[in-house]
Amino acid sequence: MEPVIAVNGLVKTYGRVRALDGLDLRVDAGEIHGYLGPNGAGKTTTLRVLLGLLRSDAGEVRLLGGHPWHDAVRLHRRLAYVPGDVTLWDELTGGETLDLLGRLHGRVDEGRRAELIDRFALDPGKKARTYSKGNRQKVALIAALAARAELLLLDEPTSGLDPLMEAEFRRCLAERRDQGVTILLSSHILAEVEALCDRVSIVRQGRVVESGTLTELRHLTWTSITARLERPPDRLDGVHDLEIHGTEVSFRVDSGRAGEVLTRLTGFGLVDLTAQPATLEELFLRHYREPVKS
Amino acid sequence: MNGRFAGAVTLVRLIARRDRGLMALWVGVAVAVPLFNAYSLAALLPTEAARVAFAEISAANPIATALLGRVHDTSIEGLVAWRSSVQSLLITGLAGLLFAVRHTRAEEDAGRRELVAANAVGRHAAISAVMVLAAAVNLVIVALLAAGLPLGFGYPVGGSLLFGLTAGAGGTMFAACGLLAAQLCQSAPLARTVAVGVLVAGLVPGVVVPEERIGILPAGWPRVARAYGDERWWVPLVPLAFAVVLGLAAYVLSARRDLGAGLLPDRAGSTGPVRGKLRSPAGLAWRLYGGQAATWTIALGTAGLGVGWVSTSFEAGTLTGHTLLEIFTYVFCMLVACLTVVAALRPYAEERRGRAEPLLALTGRSRWLSGHVALGLATPVAMLLAVGLGTGLGAGAPLAQLGRALLFVPAAWAVAGLTIAAYGLRPRAAAPAAWGTIVLSALCVALWEGGTIGETAFLLTPFGYGHPALSPGFLAPAAFALVAAVLVGVGGAAFARRDLIG
Fold first, then answer.
1. What angle do CA B195, B200, B206 make, to 5 degrees?
2. For chain A, first and last CA: distance in Å?
3. How far is CA B414 from each of CA A74, A103, A175, B376, B460, rounded to the nearest angstrom?
4. Which tens digit of pLDDT belongs to each residue from B258-277?
5. ipTM (interface pTM)
6. Inter-chain Cβ pairs, chain A and chain B, closer than 8 A
7. To the nearest whole angstrom, how far is the Cα of A142 from the nearest Cα of chain B?
8. Residues of A in contact with B110 (CB under 8 A)
9. Which of B52-66, B357-371, B389-403 has the highest mean pLDDT?
10. Domain-wise residue ranges, chain B
């Protein structure tokens, strides 16, 4: 099956700055794909190229089987977008803004919109001028989630939302995914991505440095293990960051090598054991602490 | 087509919803000015003999001739068309181009174009929506003029229609010019500057272009059209053709460029640590607005130099070079008063946009306000210095002219003081109060010159003692300086006590 988003070798330069430097990205139908990177890594630029708001300088981009620049209007009817920084028209109320955005999109589920207004506790009668950042964000989110779209492009959509609304947002995304919608979620909130996403791509300086399911990414990393033993060990081979406090040991073991280490631990009389897979945060920091290989 | 116009209808409705008030004002002013001219000229010049005499005086007045051309038709409707031509183009043109930039580049600057364009909206939609609405507004203006002048004053319908069409087509052309500027320039302020520059270049330099070739400029089109005379109905087609060409150019650019891009970029800023001047609120005020103030100061000085130079060799009937110089100096002073209001309203703009809040968390209120007040009070001094030096050097009498211009400083400060006092007491009333004062004072000039109000009443307005027909003592300027000081004090004290607006 053709992927919903297929990007190969995408380059976008602003003057001398290479915002995207040979970026590859693949998002399959029906998944929530986390697009991770710190500020300035190229996340927003990627989304804008996908939306046909920016022209690519090189590389190949396919979106829902079409060309993002040339087929923009046709594709936009099938997707919905939430920008990272939402500004609205001061003179319009929240309700009028939602109506306007719905008309501009063209395919809106009005029942779902009413339900979303309720779930996000938005007061649609107020002028947008009086809305806080979180409320402006809600307007854009409701408009996007109410659209009959096959693909949602979300650029750091939860900035400004309180924890209650963030939880509501996660529930909404999960529902939309269950209805078969594909979601590209750009974010730097790792807990959110870890909780929601099926697959993750990590972007750094305009390139995707890692891509896969969380399990796949963990395969490339390690498991953290803490164990209580009967006898204190003097040494333990094949592990990293070993710390020994009497009969308690903690260390990291490379993926796929836990078995042999456990065998060795049993030799010291294994009493108790906890094992934790690497968190996304650890994965992420690992990529960003290494210098870029040129 | 590929859906390039998709969403245009919805955008038309959005703009009409947002700007219904502004569009009504635009129509109102554009229709009211010719109607007012018809009313006042009929009262002023009731007989053919009076009109012929008026035409002779106007022919001897080089400023009137340069801006409006000679009077060819001494019928009352001919005079009204002559007097209203450039005014109408200025109103429809300025409104049209500001409207165009507001709904294209300014929307993009604000980040709303991204939100809109991610929907099923074609790349031509916004430009088309603006073009349709600008044309519609101008059509309403044409219809109201073609109906109002015959119904209200009994003018011929044909001539009124041609007069309206010339203004409406010109306005549509300048709206298209604003659209193209918005595509070329990377920011809305730059686009406005460029488009207004084109408008001014098209309307003002009748001074440079001889009467017989004035048709090459928009300023000359109403003269070539000769409404109420031997009417030439093809003339409105010229601006319409230009409008089509400019609009198509805007289409081409908007379909090819990136979001946020433009051929004329904004200046890139300093990336490093801020330079010394930015360490105080006054330094920040200077950094934000100093460039604008400096540009105006240089422009006023240059214009003054030109006027001064022309005045040395000027002689037309009763109008001597000296009188010309006096009149222009007075007009420059009134312009400085307007720019003073703009400068004095800046703390309000900063506060309303939420930019005062972070600074007020760091520094005291009086310190923050004093930065803006200092710049607001220094701006008219610098501008009047430029006016005095420019006109004085051009005319070869720098000291006398410098004195004449600087005499206006207390009046300008009084205007600034009033603005600041209103800002401190009732921030939302500051702009109406300040601009209301300017309009009322300008009206008083006309009323005093017409003998409706007495000299004492006139001297109470800021434009009073500086009038060239009066020889001011030092009492009036001193009184205005005192009033200004009190008003600034009141404004500062009130600002320290009130809530911030959000």
1. 150
2. 34
3. 59, 51, 64, 11, 11
4. 988 877 776 555 555 555 55
5. 0.84
6. 70
7. 13
8. 87
9. B389-403
10. 1-262, 279-502
